[in-house]
Amino acid sequence: ISYSDKPVAISRQADVAQWCVAHAIPAIEYAGVDKSVEHFRNNPADLCVVAGWYHMLPSRLRDLFRLGAVGLHASRLPELRGGAPLNWAILAGFERTAVTLFALGDGVDDGPVYGQEAIDVGPNDYIGELVARCNAASVVLVERCISGILDGSLVPAVQDGVASYGAQRSPEDGVIDWAAPAAGIARLVRAVSRPYPGASTWLDGRLVRIWRAGEYRAAAVYGAPGQILCLPGGQVVVATGKGAIEIEEAEDDGGQSVMVALRRSSHRRFRSQS
Prior knowledge:
This protein is an alpha+beta fold. The protein has seven helices and twelve strands. It has helices at residues 16-22, 33-42, 59-62, 85-91, 127-151, 182-191, 259-262; strands spanning 48-50, 69-73, 81-82, 96-103, 113-120, 165-166, 199-203, 206-215, 228-230, 236-239, 244-252, 270-271. The strands form three sheets. The protein has a six-stranded antiparallel sheet. A four-stranded mixed sheet has the order 1-2-4-5. The protein is elongated.
């Protein structure tokens, strides 16, 4: 079952339906819980594997599968239950996370765990790199666990440790607060870069999306938060509440690079709203 292939307001979406067609696998478009229940009553299945799904699966659907339902979650459960776990891992400065395969129940990401695959989070990793690493780890994890789930030899373990939770995020959460420290702004840029909507700010009332940036440590920089300094070496540096960041890639709302324009914008200020 896949979501509709129509454009949706999320930053990334796998075209599962087309992949199924290419591999001669039956696929149906999600049309609500009732339609899904009807389908699986008429087409019994052993196990439901859930990945990248944005709805809770009620028990009346899960119970139709002989072995229930399992899900993939991109965190080291019980750490970062809930929304946007990879984004929060970067924002919080985690050095390691994981992808977890667990049994789905009525709670939020709190079911017993079949297995985990660790994922390193480097100090300069961007979210796209982490997503790719998570996708690869998910394949390894499912391949390692699926046979044991199907034959009953792999018994899930109750989640162990202190739970933490992440809120769902929206594009508005990517607006840069230039009064924040440079380290936090750099993490925000890395956490919401491609395939997400990017870190946003405004210059002279025009939206600017910053895709790549890092802390600037080569020299002390003094300026009001959001003030641009174009250095002799061509670097575009922005003062923050503590320290400065160097912008490496930025575009306007139409996807055109604004780096040349920024190099001519010394002493002007980015704003957190238009």
